[in-house]
Design brief:
- The structure holds 2 protein chains of 2 kinds.
- Chain A has 15 helices and 5 strands.
- By secondary structure, chain A is an alpha/beta fold.
- Chain A has a single domain, classed as Rossmann fold (3-Layer(aba) Sandwich).
- The longest helix of chain A is centred in the C-terminal third of the chain and has 25 residues.
- By secondary structure, chain B is mostly helical.
- Chain B has 3 domains: about 190 residues, no CATH class; about 170 residues, no CATH class; about 130 residues, no CATH class.
- The chains are: A alpha/beta, B mainly alpha.
- The interface between A and B is medium-sized, with 26 and 30 residues.
Chain lengths: ~350, ~525
């Protein structure tokens, strides 16, 4: 070691300056490389959009695509004066829903939280890409940290969530104009969490679910469902369980029974909309854009109308349309909502 | 724990902080603990083997030294003749030899059983099948301890050196255990000598700006080679070698060159990390490479590639064998029967043959490695035999100093070594020969298409990164001919230094093949 030329040690001020410069460069690089989810797959931007909203919702929906593609908060407002928001993300797992609920309740105390029970079928972390779309958008908090811990697949590392640059570094060769255009700001892609699609792809020959060896939901799922229930109780919020009317992935009767049993045991409301499609007025020849997996705008509006009525008649929700500030805010949202619908319809023609 | 993993970086950060936080006299003890923790994390079972090797070699070396000391302090009876004294000395040496051979065979036995049992079983089954004996022995479920070939050879070099009284035996077992289990070396060497490593291993070290920054710089360079080059090109190499039937000669040729680059970047990168880690803690580990692909012939290449392994085989096999009684007799026999000219070469070639055979066996339990080792021997022997021809050529044509001729020699060496390295790649020897033959019988240049290259798993941008990375490797190697690159950079102004090192850091960060989508890849030499 003695044969080494003594390294000229820079002055402390220079070192500090260079450290700041390095951190700034790394931060900027991270901003550039993080996926923007502004076009194409926009689901990755949904979770973060909630933070832009005033936190005064009557009802918050938490769950997967069966909520954010099937429920229209605009209809709930227009028809029932219910101010709602969907904290939805693609393949949102039950522990992710729980931690989103935990986080939401730090910001606001809605009258009710609606949880879609499809994710009860998953008792293990599933997919890194979906994890990212739910978790990256969350603000840093203990809830986010716990959600990451619960969600990571074997190939994931916590450090890559703390420093997403380590995860997205390979995007350096795939950068698009969006990565620079939306570097410091992002457009809102949803309508209070609702992902709008107006196109139609009728549901034909929907496959029956293949028989399963075991229909019992995993213990971990019940554990998180219990945690959700307790959390809502502690915060004086009503927990409502729903199963959206998506024809596929298949919802087994055995699963449905377990949810019925659970809701009866704890006095919760559980609505399986698959059994009330006629009452909702849903027609899977016209109300779905992907052959029954999700509803299109027409279907979502019908379901929202039906569920809005339930919220009013069975859960005592009242209209807030007399709140001028809120109404003004919704007027703006409805305008944007209608404009987007018109834009999409125009594209279809 | 892989070097190229977050866990290793965390482990390293903790070790580094604790190491310098401790009083100097406890630093080496902490390094011993860190080495065992590193090994324990890899597999607790491994600890049995490394401690057994450490203890048996330590104990045998101590016993040898005790015997020697006892003999030195022995009061010889008055009037003892020179012959009687010689006889006593021989007796003492014989006792020492027993301890040395005992420990040597015991530890080689462990290595042989763990590494070569299944290879032996496969061969017995194959022979049995060939002669119709119908014997089929089940393979054993043996886990090969990480770096066993490296630490066994390192410990044995100490044992043999103490036997030859090159230095005193280490009296403290923990200190010796640290020499065997110094964690940066556990993954893939180098095979350090006790006389080199012990100089700085047990010393007290205070944090010094120069040593720490140089160490970190070396680590970064190692990660650049491993992550940006080796782990990126690995995808294409695997695509070619795992599907030999699909690719014509031109792809085999491409795969051969790719593998040579991968191996170089992987192994030298790993050694850079090892040396750099040690350097951050003030410990000097011997260099293992000296720009091997700038060698003009194979002999020179082997003096510059995996130097510590080469010198091990030279010092502990080639030289002892060359001066052995057997070799003296072989020399006499050969000279008598073939004349002086040929006869004098027989013992040298025989020793070389043994060295290359054992080098091949050391590399791995398969015929591929044995044939690879012998392939090196054949190439070296042929070049030795042809040396009069070369001399005649050079006396007639004065091209030896011409740049183009030097380039030709370098390219020739690269190609020959790359050809030999094909034995590392393909699943068996016949297939390797077949694929080698494909390069001459079915080169198929017309099959070289963008779509086919695209099917190798790399995108055009990956090839661009690889090309740029390789150019940088070559440039750095060229600058190194005139001294250390880090030394040169150290002489620059602070802003330039920052740009270079932070730039390298960013290159690794952005262009490294790590994280989701890339499999964490073990260092190739870790399997040896």
């Amino acid at each position: 070691m003695n044969d080494m030329t003594e390294q000229k040690k820079p002055k402390a001020a220079v070192i500090v300056l260079l450290i700041y410069l390095s951190i700034a460069l790394l931060w900027l690089l991270q901003k550039v490389l993080m996926p923007k989810y502004m076009h194409g797959i926009t689901e990755g931007s949904m979770i973060a959009e909630y933070y832009k909203e005033p936190k005064d919702h009557d009802v918050v929906f938490i769950g997967d695509c069966e909520l954010y593609e099937n429920i229209s908060p605009a209809v709930l407002w227009e028809k029932y004066g219910i101010n709602s928001y969907i904290r939805g993300s693609a393949q949102q797992l039950i522990w992710q829903s729980y931690y989103l609920m935990e986080e939401t309740l730090k910001y606001e105390k809605p009258k009710a939280i609606v949880f879609n029970v499809l994710s009860m079928q998953y008792d293990k972390p599933q997919n890194e890409a979906y994890n990212r779309m739910t978790l990256d958008g969350m603000k840093w908090s203990k809830s986010k940290f716990d959600s990451i811990k619960a969600s990571m697949t074997s190939e994931e590392h916590m450090v890559e969530y703390v420093f997403p640059l380590l995860r997205y570094h390979s995007r350096i060769t795939e950068l698009e104009p969006d990565d620079f255009e939306y570097l410091f700001h992002k457009d809102t892609t949803t309508f209070n969490g609702y992902y709008m699609r107006v196109d139609v792809k009728p549901a034909e020959n929907v496959p029956q679910g293949r028989p399963l060896g075991n229909y019992q939901f995993g213990d971990i799922c019940y554990e998180y469902l219990d945690k959700m229930r307790v959390l809502c109780e502690e915060n004086g919020v009503e927990l409502i369980l729903v199963k959206a009317p998506s024809l596929y992935p298949y919802w087994y009767d055995e699963w449905d029974q377990q949810m019925k049993d659970y809701s009866e045991e704890y006095g919760l409301s559980y609505y399986n909309f698959l059994k009330t499609t006629d009452e909702c007025g849903l027609d899977f020849a016209t109300d779905t854009y992907d052959a029954g997996l999700h509803l299109n705008l027409s279907g979502a509006e019908k379901l929202s109308d039906y569920f809005g009525n339930i919220l009013v008649t069975e859960h005592g929700f009242t209209s807030h349309k007399d709140d001028k500030e809120l109404a003004a805010r919704w007027d703006e949202k409805i305008k944007a909502y209608d404009a987007e619908a018109q834009r999409q319809y125009a594209l279809l023609e | 724990m892989l070097f190229a993993s977050y866990e290793f970086l965390l482990f390293l950060a903790v070790v580094f902080i604790v190491y310098y936080a401790l009083p100097g006299r406890y630093q080496w003890i902490f390094l011993l603990i860190a080495g065992y923790v590193f090994y324990f994390i890899a597999n607790p079972f491994y600890l049995i083997f490394i401690t057994t090797t450490s203890f048996t070699v330590y104990y045998a070396a101590r016993k040898m030294e005790d015997i020697r000391r006892e003999f030195k302090t022995l009061k010889l009876p008055e009037g003892i003749t020179r012959e009687e004294k010689k006889e006593l000395k021989a007796k003492e040496k014989k006792q020492e030899k027993r301890w040395m051979l005992g420990a040597l065979l015991f530890n080689l036995g462990i290595l042989a059983v763990l590494k070569y049992t299944n290879f032996a079983i496969s061969n017995i089954n194959a022979i049995s099948g060939a002669v119709g004996a119908g014997l089929s022995i089940e393979h054993l479920n043996i886990i090969l301890p990480m770096g066993i070939s490296f630490y066994t050879f390192q410990a044995l070099s100490y044992l043999i050196d103490v036997y030859h009284a090159k230095y005193d035996a280490q009296r403290s077992f923990p200190r010796f255990a640290l020499f065997v289990s110094f964690f940066p070396q556990l993954v893939q060497g180098p095979i350090s000598r006790y006389s080199d490593l012990s100089k700085s291993l047990y010393e007290e070290h205070r944090p010094e700006y120069t040593t720490i920054t140089r160490g970190l710089q070396r680590i970064m360079w190692g990660f650049f080679k491993k992550l940006v080059i080796a782990d990126r090109i690995l995808v294409a190499v695997n695509a070619i070698i795992h599907d030999p039937e699909t690719y014509s000669g031109v792809y085999v040729f491409m795969g051969m060159l790719f593998y040579a680059l991968e191996l170089y970047a992987d192994f030298t990168g790993g050694i850079d990390i090892t040396i750099g880690v040690a350097q951050t803690m003030g410990i000097t580990v011997k260099e293992n490479f000296e720009r091997p692909f700038f060698s003009k012939n194979i002999k020179e290449y082997w003096k510059r590639w995996h130097i510590t392994m080469g010198t091990w085989f030279t010092d502990y096999i080639f030289y002892p064998l060359s001066v052995s009684k057997f070799m003296r007799n072989l020399n006499k026999f050969a000279r008598k029967h073939f004349g002086d000219k040929i006869g004098k070469r027989v013992p040298v070639y025989f020793s070389s043959f043994v060295v290359w055979l054992t080098t091949g066996i050391w590399h791995g339990a398969s015929w591929n490695f044995i044939v690879w080792g012998l392939g090196n021997f054949v190439v070296i022997m042929i070049s030795e035999e042809l040396s009069p021809l070369y001399d005649a050529f050079h006396s007639r044509f004065k091209v030896a100093d011409r740049k183009w001729y030097k380039c030709f020699q370098i390219i020739r060496t690269v190609l020959i070594m790359s050809c030999l390295r094909m034995f590392d790649c393909y699943r068996d020897v016949p297939l390797t020969f077949k694929m080698f033959g494909t390069m001459f019988t079915n080169f198929g240049l017309k099959n070289l298409s963008a779509s086919m290259i695209g099917e190798l798993g790399l995108k055009p941008v990956d090839y661009c990164i690889l090309l740029a990375g390789t150019v940088l490797l070559i440039l750095v190697s060229m600058i190194q001919r005139n001294g250390s690159v880090r030394e040169k950079i150290a002489g620059l102004g602070v802003l330039k230094r920052y740009c270079i090192w932070f730039g390298l850091f960013l290159i690794i960060l952005l262009f490294g093949a790590y994280g989701i989508g890339y499999d964490e890849s073990q260092f190739i030499y870790n399997q040896f």
